[in-house]
Amino acid sequence: MAPVLPLVLPLQPRIRLAQGLWLLSWLLALAGGLILLCSGHLLVQLRHLGTFLAPSCQFPALPQAALAAGAVALGTGLVGAGASRASLNAALYLPWRGVLGPLLVAGTAGGGGLLVLALGLALSLPGSLDEALEEGLGTALAHYRDTEVPGHCQDKRLVDELQLRYHCCGRHGYKDWFGVQWVSSRYLDPSDQDVVDRIQSNVEGLYLTDGVPFSCCNPHSPRPCLQNRLSDSYAHPLFDPRQPNQNLWAQGCHEVLLEHLQDLAGTLGSMLAVTFLLQALVLLGLRYLQTALEGLGGVIDGEGETQGYLFPSGLKEMLKTAWLQGWIAHRPAPEEAPPGEAPLKEDLSEA
Amino acid sequence: MALLKVKFDQKKRVKLAQGLWLMNWFSVLAGIIIFSLGLFLKIELRKRSDVMNNSESHFVPNSLIGMGVLSCVFNSLAGKICYDALDPAKYARWKPWLKPYLAICVLFNIVLFLVALCCFLLRGSLENTLSQGLKNGMKYYRDTDTPGRCFMKKTIDMLQIEFKCCGNNGFRDWFEIQWISNRYLDFSSKEVKDRIKSNVDGRYLVDGVPFSCCNPSSPRPCIQYQITNNSAHYSYDHQTEELNLWVRGCRAALLTYYSSLMNSMGIVTLLIWLFEVTITIGLRYLQTSLNGVSNPEEPESESEGWLLEKSVPETWKAFLESVKKLGKGNQVEAEGTDAGQAPEAS
């Protein structure tokens, strides 16, 4: 019954391990706290930008999973700091002895699982943002005029505030507004010949103009904002529609929002990766410390050498023991296999 | 008759010193807070100095910054003194310096209180500078090709968007100035020629506003031009229309912003002032109780601490006497030197 990955730990290396573990645990707690802040920030952003993402988009699942993973990482860090501090003192370590085993299992299974899930989401979800934004922005622009339709009455204000804050216009450029009726029919004069002509010249009966809303205007432009008749070169003095338009924001909101959200998701993903590494190190260190101190019994400050290990026996023996125990327990009365064995098997398959 | 006498035994003295040491370090933190508040206000004023004619008074943020630094210095010194007060040998070093130090602390507290009051009282001057600055800013709105003023359009536009305001007192201020530069006017158009001729100064005035006055919450696309002409737009009545443009003037908006900022800073400074007064009183008690230990070989003995040795009118009389003596002392000296010089001359 050879222990898996044994490590001889006399007193001095044990103390060093405990001290290093204490430092790593505080770093892990810090990383967990930072993840909590970052995912909170992303959640708040998504609340404002939620109208511009299609309802079927799964992106909000990422900050939620990261929030849970960050909380568990913070907890693991605090537990690790407490346990490593206590391991240097026999009186303090006594209450930890019984609790440390199940805590390690919970930390590996729960924390590790959540972190892996969050990392996976951080890698896969930003790809789906493109279509979600395309659909969401398209709907928002189409409903810009529906300020009296329940469910869409806020769209105008939200699109205007989006364009003002993020310095963008339309989906991919200001010309998107030429293909959408953004002036509500309530404010169109039916007796005006120009209005009638425009509506009739269009297959769907939409009132389309070569104008944009005021929120597309760029304050850096030297001239007062030109919003109407943008394709007519004779409508305004010194204005050539073929030149790049300095008057309006050049970027489309799709690109701006995509970059913004992908940046946030990327930052969150890299923080999750660092936390995963730190958590793995802390859990490994705690396991070695726990098994080494178990070998000593109650005498923590003793000069004796002990062995720390990951698992008391190899995979085959563990499975055999678990099976036998389960079989023996099953014979006299139905009982579950000890819960400690099953998660350890999970660890083995993970490692 | 001493003022507010309190008996101190050894334990109480030690507790007082330790408590004061902790409070002094919290007070250093408070000093850092005052410093950063002053810095924040200075940066906010600098950010918008364009619309304040560059003549706004920086008295409040400068004094907050100065008070913050002084508070850090004095309180860390006081913390060191309180720490040493528990050791008679080290305390003997500080003993002669404590009285002038406490006098300086009292002065510092008075100045801190005055600075806190200033935070509440100085918004009047801000109102004047804002009014002047905004008027000029709007005047130079169209001068985007004049060096030194080319940024004014961008500044005013971003100000109106950020603070949700329009014009100086309201959107009608834009009707009285020419905010469209002559470069972008079509002088062959009859309408333009009419407008310029109808005006004494030859300015092109319109009943229109820049786009930054538009309110995104309006249900209809923004009406910027021909605002007072109901027939120019379908289903429009400018008398009842409320949501189209921002109604507030930028002077009122900026004033509210800076007033609330300075008021909250004033409240924080007042709270910190109360804390500092408590620390000064505690330090005075510590000083008098340690001085009252009659026998330095017996640090366990009881002593009395007080605020003033005699009652207030007696202390004031004694203070005046000492000032007079100082004056008389100078006079006697001066007479002595004169008499000494006179025989020499003659």
TrEMBL record, chain A:
Region (Disordered): 332-351
Superkingdom of origin organism: Eukaryota
PROSITE patterns: RDS_ROM1
One Gene Ontology molecular-function label: protein homodimerization activity
Cited InterPro entries: Peripherin/rom-1 (IPR000830), Peripherin/rom-1_CS (IPR018498), Peripherin_LEL (IPR042026), Tetraspanin/Peripherin (IPR018499), Tetraspanin_EC2_sf (IPR008952)
GO CC, alphabetical: photoreceptor inner segment; photoreceptor outer segment membrane
Membrane topology, from the record: Multi-pass membrane protein
Compartment(s): Cell projection, Cilium, Photoreceptor outer segment; Membrane; Photoreceptor inner segment
Sequence similarity: Belongs to the PRPH2/ROM1 family.
Name the record gives this protein: Retinal outer segment membrane protein 1
Organism annotation: Callithrix jacchus
Gene name per UniProt: ROM1
Automatic annotation (TrEMBL), chain B:
Keywords assigned: Cell adhesion, Disulfide bond, Glycoprotein, Membrane, Sensory transduction, Transmembrane, Transmembrane helix, Vision
Keyword RNA-binding: no
GO MF annotation list: protein homodimerization activity
Superkingdom, natural source: Eukaryota
Cellular component annotations (GO), alphabetically ordered: photoreceptor inner segment; photoreceptor outer segment; plasma membrane
Subcellular locations according to the entry: Cell projection, Cilium, Photoreceptor outer segment; Membrane; Photoreceptor inner segment
UniProt keyword annotation of Cytoplasm present: no
Residue ranges crossing the lipid bilayer per the database entry: 20-41, 101-122
Protein name in the entry: Peripherin-2
